[in-house]
Specification:
Blueprint: E1 6-7, H1 15-25, H2 34-47, E2 51-55, H3 58-68, E3 76-79, H4 86-93, E4 97-100, H5 112-120, E5 127-131, H6 142-152, E6 155-159, E7 167-169, E8 175-177, E9 186-190, E10 203-207, H7 210-219, E11 224-225, H8 235-239, E12 254-255, H9 266-276, H10 279-297, E13 303-306, E14 318-322, H11 325-334, E15 337-338, H12 350-353, H13 363-371, E16 372-375, H14 383-396
Parallel strand pairs: 1-15, 3-4, 3-5, 5-6, 6-9
Antiparallel strand pairs: 2-10, 7-8, 9-10, 11-12, 13-14, 14-16
């Protein structure tokens, strides 16, 4: 008998994590210190990108990406309806127009054929970009999306919040890490407690584009720069004197664009760096858990769809589609299993409905939502706990 609550996701904080946070709290810097760059360099190396920019959360990461790519009033951007709302909202923050496109019912990912049909139905220049999402941890084929985007002059933001450690194989059968920015202009990650790497809150943007990287650095800190080569005002103004001088003073800085305070703290970065060291071990465990679920539900009549075991899947979530989803959800909660639903289709949120979206617009996403449920998936989930979850699901449908 399992007495404790089993959530769908859970952070794993070790004594080593606690120690590095204490060290950071006792250091000279709580924010804007050396732990930020240390985390950024380690994360960029982990995913294989050139640059990484740590920010306060995944939503801030998306917002800064949209700003860096100059999304403005009326710009149309394509994304999936099966995602957390922030994937779409970042476009609205900048005044852009979100255009939802339906999912592939087998992968739950944005269907590239439907995106292609959208693009072909309008003159070139109608759309500005695409935000594909590595939903549940399954990697989007960004090589295919890059080819399509190049045909229409589009940028790509990869929402990889669910997929650090995930990968796909490109047309040359070469493994491509989620977030390596080889095909996307920018990629973003989240460090919310239920994600693979937990910082409490936090996010990361990765890119291989130096120009975008420098824009992001300024945008996350009020649009302020302390890089002398970028200054517009004169040295005399900066020094507050008419006496000729050949150097800017040490205190000087310039706000050159309208930015935001989207910084990560040093103690959060220290925690993230510590967690990153266990990321590979966590991925192995997640894939083991997925294999057990997959085998347990293979051939079961009540299963209408499931995540399955897919090469390169990062398994932030393990999703099944079932009949009587509401009944199962309530049954699991009665037995202290707190499964979750990911996600209510974005286009049917009241905010987006008032912008013109309606039921029937995304039939695959809407059918998926009627049946989907995310099962407990985290590295510290024990075999006993997982078997308990499987037994309760099987027993519910055996009544």
């Amino acid at each position: 008998m399992i007495d404790k609550v089993i959530p769908y996701g859970r952070q794993n904080i070790t004594q080593e994590d606690i120690n590095v946070v204490i060290d950071a709290l006792q250091s000279d810097y709580l924010t804007q210190g050396p732990k930020i760059l240390e985390f950024e360099k380690a994360f960029a190396e982990y995913v294989g990108s050139t640059y990484a920019v740590a920010v306060s959360n995944g939503t801030a990461a998306l917002h800064l990406c949209a700003l860096a790519l100059d999304v403005k009033d009326g710009d149309k951007v394509i994304t999936t309806p099966i995602t957390f709302a922030a994937s779409a909202n970042c476009v609205r923050y900048c005044g852009g127009e979100v255009v939802f496109s339906d999912i592939d019912p087998d992968t739950y990912l944005l269907d590239i054929e439907k995106v292609k049909a959208l693009l072909e139905a309008s003159p070139k220049g109608t759309y500005k970009g695409i935000i594909p999402v590595d939903f549940a941890g399954r990697a989007v084929d960004l090589a295919a999306y890059r080819k399509l985007a190049d045909q229409y002059g589009l940028w790509i933001i990869e929402d990889a919040c669910h997929a650090p450690g995930g990968f796909f194989n490109d047309t040359n059968n070469s493994s491509q890490n989620c977030g390596n920015s080889k095909f996307a202009n920018l990629a973003i990650f989240s460090f919310h407690p239920v994600k693979h790497i937990a910082c409490g809150e936090g996010g990361m943007i990765t890119t291989n584009d130096e120009i975008l990287y420098k824009k992001l650095l300024a945008l996350r800190t009020h649009g302020i720069t302390k890089n002398e080569s970028d200054y517009s005002n004169s040295i005399e103004f900066a020094n507050g004197t008419t006496t000729p001088t050949d150097a800017y003073p040490g205190w000087y800085m310039e706000m050159q664009t309208l930015g935001f305070n989207y910084r990560l703290t040093d103690f959060q970065a220290a925690l993230g760096t510590s967690q990153l060291q266990r990321a590979d071990d966590g991925m192995v465990k997640r894939r083991e858990i997925a294999s057990i679920y997959n085998e347990a539900f293979r051939g079961k009549s009540f299963i209408q769809g499931q995540s399955g075991v897919v090469e390169g899947h990062a398994y932030h979530l393990y999703v099944i589609e079932v009949e009587d989803r509401l009944g199962l959800y309530n049954h699991l909660r009665e037995n202290k299993i707190f499964a979750q639903i990911h996600y209510i289709p974005c286009h049917l949120m009241p905010y987006y409905k008032q912008l013109g979206w309606a039921a029937g617009d995304m039939p695959n996403a809407e059918n998926y939502y009627k049946n989907c449920i995310s099962l407990p998936m985290y590295p510290t989930l024990s075999t006993e706990e997982q078997n308990y979850v499987i037994d309760k699901i099987t027993a519910y449908y055996s009544k």
